[in-house]
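Hi all, long-time lurker, first post. I run a small reading group and we've been trying to get comfortable going from sequence to structure in the token notation. Rather than ask abstract questions, I figured I'd post a concrete chain and ask someone more experienced to write out its structure so we can walk through it together at our next meeting. Sequence below, copied exactly:
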Amino acid sequence: MNILRSKQEASKIIEDSKTSPVFLLKHSLICPISSAAYSVFSTFSENNPEIYCYVVHIQENRDISNHIAEETGIRHSSPQAILLSGGNAVWNESHYGITGDSLKQALT
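-- Answer (accepted) --
Happy to help. Here is the structure in token form:
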């Protein structure tokens, strides 16, 4: 799992999703619900190394989070998982909806 550190990186993963699916997690470093989602997302990433997975720490990089919202048309939430495919956001879920099963099912 990689950490996004710039708007340029965020734009690049959206572009990269045209050839391979990309998961993105918007993660709050201070929220216990987000910590639970991060744990689920980390496990998913470890168990699916062929899937590109990225995380944005929103307290440190709110500009990146806002950029992603603008680029995808998906209103910001935290925690929030987004699946990018074909250069578009094709699925998203937030809070307790972020589960191992929901991440797997999003790929089908």
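A couple of things your group might point at:
The longest helix spans residues 32-47.
The longest strand covers residues 88-94.
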